[in-house]
């Protein structure tokens, strides 16, 4: 699978996708290395060209704190959409689970490209909405399942 | 009559003893000694917090519930990871076919049993 076929670029022609990818730069993230930190400023989005990224949140366990896996993203998927959505702060921490290559697309040139090519911007933003919406729906369902268990525990 | 006089005498004697005891208890200290004692009492009162019955320090927030796993931390983290994966799979299954049953379907996660 080539990076031009990434989920963020579904529906974008190959030539336009290549132009868009050319705005970014390729970065290698070694196994266990951090791609971005929770709460840090998000300057762009990341397309995973190869590898796997774990998205984690911190949790207090015993006297310490541990990163708990929340989601995994793999080849062709995007991470770090906080780079395009205000307040541009990462709400998760991203770590490479295996050696991973990503394309970093910085926000400013990306938005300029969308302004100049609104049709492409529309398609990309629709794909982004789909990624964001999917996560929202999954977590909504997970939260409700947890609530259901809470209610059952309290009423038993 | 004799009995009456005896009770009267005893009462007058008792009253006199009480009067002497009261006088001894309320007699003032010598002037210098009294001033020193007053100063010492004032000093101690000044040191007492104004809100005697209220804690001076703001109440501490309730300590966060500390989750202490009964198994080694690596095992516990692996259990959480498995739980998250199973829950996500269950949630995604609900999204592909939304229904009450698919939303609340059980998983084999050890953390919910």
The percent of residues in helical segments of chain B reads 55-70%
Strand content of the residues of chain A, in percent?
25-35%
CATH topology of chain A: Jelly Rolls
Following the backbone from N to C, one meets helices and strands of chain A in this order, namely: HEEEEEEEEHH
Strand content of chain B: under 5%
Overall pLDDT score of chain A: 93
Largest sheet of chain B: none
CA radius of gyration of chain B:
40 Å
Helix content of chain A: 25-40%
Note the total helix count of chain B.
4
The CATH class designation of chain A is Mainly Beta
Largest β-sheet summary of chain A:
4 strands, antiparallel
Biggest contact: A-B, 22 and 22 residues
Low-confidence stretches of chain A: none
- Give the strand tally of chain B: 0
Radius of gyration of chain A: 17 Å
CA(first)-CA(last) distance of chain B: 94 Å
What is the typical, i.e. mean, pLDDT of chain B?
Answer: 74
Write the layout of secondary structure elements.
The complex is a heterodimer of chains A (156) and B (113).
Chain A: H1 14-21, E1 25-29, E2 34-36, E3 44-50, E4 52-61, E5 64-74, E6 78-79, E7 93-96, E8 100-106, H2 107-116, H3 118-155
Helix pairs in contact in A: 2-3
Chain B: H1 2-26, H2 31-47, H3 73-96, H4 100-103
Care to describe what's here?
The complex is a heterodimer of chains A (156) and B (113). With 156 residues, chain A is an alpha+beta fold. Chain A has one domain (3-155): Jelly Rolls, CATH 2.60.120.10. Chain A contains three helices and eight strands, in the order αββββββββαα. In chain A, a hairpin with a 2-residue loop joins strand 4 (52-61) and strand 5. Chain A is globular, with a radius of gyration of 17 Å. The N and C termini of chain A lie far apart (50 Å). Chain B has 113 residues and is mostly helical. Chain B has a domain at 73-112. Chain B starts with a helix and ends in a 10-residue tail after the last helix. The mean pLDDT of chain B is 74. The A-B interface holds A 59-64, 66, 68-71, 134, 137-142, 144-145, 148-149 and B 64, 66-69, 73, 76-77, 80-81, 84-85, 87-88, 90-92, 94-95, 103-104, 112.
């Amino acid at each position: 699978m080539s990076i031009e076929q990434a989920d963020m670029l579904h529906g974008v022609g190959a030539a336009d996708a290549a132009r868009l990818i050319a705005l970014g730069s390729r970065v290698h993230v070694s196994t266990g290395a951090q791609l971005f930190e929770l709460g840090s400023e998000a300057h762009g989005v990341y397309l995973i060209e190869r590898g796997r990224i774990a998205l984690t949140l911190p949790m207090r366990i015993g006297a310490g704190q541990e990163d708990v896996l929340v989601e995994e993203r793999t080849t062709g998927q995007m991470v770090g959409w906080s780079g395009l959505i205000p307040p541009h702060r990462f709400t998760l921490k991203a770590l490479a689970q295996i050696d991973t290559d990503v394309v970093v697309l910085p926000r400013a040139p990306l938005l300029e490209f969308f302004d100049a090519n609104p049709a492409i911007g529309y398609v990309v933003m629709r794909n982004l909405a789909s990624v964001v919406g999917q996560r929202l729906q999954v977590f909504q369902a997970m939260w409700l399942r947890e609530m259901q268990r809470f209610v059952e525990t309290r009423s038993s | 009559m004799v009995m009456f006089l005896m009770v009267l005498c005893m009462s007058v004697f008792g009253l006199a003893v009480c009067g002497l005891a009261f006088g001894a208890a309320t007699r003032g200290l010598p002037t210098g000694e009294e001033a020193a004692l007053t100063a010492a009492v004032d000093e101690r009162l000044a040191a007492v917090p104004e809100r005697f019955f209220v804690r001076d320090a703001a109440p501490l927030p309730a300590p966060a519930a500390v989750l202490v796993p009964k198994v080694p931390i690596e095992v516990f983290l692996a259990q959480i990871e498995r739980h998250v994966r199973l829950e996500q799979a269950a949630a995604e299954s609900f999204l592909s076919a939304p229904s009450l049953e698919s939303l609340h379907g059980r998983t084999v996660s050890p953390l919910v049993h």
